[in-house]
């Protein structure tokens, strides 16, 4: 399972189920073998390899990136339903892609990595659909965005994008672990080959293979998973909140 | 996704620690220090490039919580250059800072320590196999990424913290990570260990291997291999492929980028998120456990060649996610599917064991006992070992169920029959233990022996490949899918 999003307004969390091509939504307090509240699955969904997602609890939408498109479903959709919008970005990265929604500024950030190109962050209007050019693209050798490692977050009050990445090219050993991993912070108003505003936990810090990032603004903290350490860490970073 | 009471208690425990740390931090860092820190943080937002050093933050060192398990700290020298180079780019003449909305905030927190780390310091056993010739038992560890070798008759005393292994294979050179399948060559003691999900390599070590050493042999595999069976008569290695619902077969002596010699994949196979695999050599059939989630792949007469990544152009390579039929996904009940060993293509199983009477719930590891014609299934989510007649078909009850507090079975993922010593081994991912029984054991039977990798009272965290992480702000819970 490669994504999980908690919706604080409706007290639910949603996950993609890649093998069964489904999106599952559970009660926030779900425990044990509790069935999901809702399942999106079926021939109309266009779900092929749902691996990541984000939920916009304000506008009640679920965003599922998939290869070079983003499928948008109503948050309360159940069963075999077609997406209400499909974004086909003209510069969309392929492969493992993650998304994060800024419901305050009506933005959709799409992050992904491409062989030979590295990581890129594409910033769209939230309601963009069809073949649309992003309003901004962050990436390039100076950006330090070697990859987009996993699910990431946005913090609308400060226009921030917070994600795990790595510097440099992949080597065989560094496939498993590297000191080049870090959590970086960019702005949704950045555009171009822009270095991160903050570097957290690396490079050459504690991180060895950063994956997902979740935000806890109340405690001015970010929560980070690390595959190689097989661990979850909490960093206190009041500077970014 | 499920949360056992133990996981819930553990989550509550970490929430309690988190709250405690916040309170403690307020007490320790309160008053003037906290105020100065806040002022400093505010000043950061006002800083502008001056060409000289500026004080940008006050960073109190965080105390570790729990047992203090933490990676060794790295010298900052090389780091600084990398981090500083990145950050300096923002203000470099002719750089891109002008395209940023606010290029002034540049903070290097690369050396900041986490205030909390959730990490299990003890091995979590995932699969097990016995080397009867050398009287050893081998266990894979999906938490700290090691292969551990013990004396077969080791028995951790109740008061002992753990049993020390005789040998440990682990480290980056070994290419060991989330290992879930294991085979010991009865002729020479070679260890075949399957990586799931991250490394895409079958690693093979000689019995003498120890420490951080490269594998003696490695085979590139499709992504998401899980179970392994080796047919000594036909010199073949068979692997289940979880992600693509397939079984691939290699020559036993395969190495490097060699292609599989056979592929079993397709709708008719009823493979659905396959995990464990066992071989009945006498009847020449294989048994595969399936969790149940599956999608269709591009059907028909397309050549079975890899179309992406390391599988590109290789024959008998499973069709991957880029060949998945959109919207074809479904969730079937868990099952055991049975095939001829040499089944290939989109071949239907000979038999299927499936249905509510079976009690299967994430059936993972599987072992075959030829003496009794029985199948032993590690039934992960039900904390049980299910025993079926190997000739069974349909919705049948297990002939025995091993389960209960006294049995010490908790999230079993690996199972092995040691025919020579007439013993059943179970790798319990959920409680730092491998347990041994008579194969005829049933009900809540205590184990004959226990090998523990951690203290009796230390809960296993059950974290395995944490990819995303979520935060439930209402309950102040961290959500960790695996």
Characterize the structure shown:
The complex is a heterodimer of chains A (about 240) and B (about 475). Chain A has no helices and 19 strands. Chain A is globular, with a radius of gyration of 17 Å. The model of chain A has no long low-confidence stretch (mean pLDDT about 95). With about 240 residues, chain A is an all-beta fold. In chain A, a hairpin with a 4-residue loop joins strand 2 (about 10-15) and strand 3 (about 20-25). In chain B, strands 3-4-5-6 form a four-stranded antiparallel beta sheet, with no helix packed on it. Chain B has a four-stranded antiparallel beta sheet with strand order 7-8-9-10, with no helix packed on it. Residues about 1-80, about 95-100 and about 100-105 of chain B have low confidence and may be disordered. Chain B is mainly β and about 475 residues long. Chains A and B meet through strand 2, strand 3, strand 16, strand 17 and strand 18 of A and helix 1, helix 2, helix 3, strand 1 and strand 2 of B. Strand 16 (about 200) of chain A pairs parallel with strand 1 (about 105-110) of chain B.
Summarize the structure.
With 241 residues, chain A is mainly beta. In chain A, 0% of the residues lie in helices and 42% in strands. The interface between A and B is large, with 96 and 98 residues.
> How do the strands line up in the largest sheet of chain B?
3-4-5-6
Give the name of the CATH superfamily of the largest domain in chain B. Answer: YVTN repeat-like/Quinoprotein amine dehydrogenase
Total helical segments of chain A: 0
Secondary-structure element pattern of chain A, one letter each: EEEEEEEEEEEEEEEEEEE
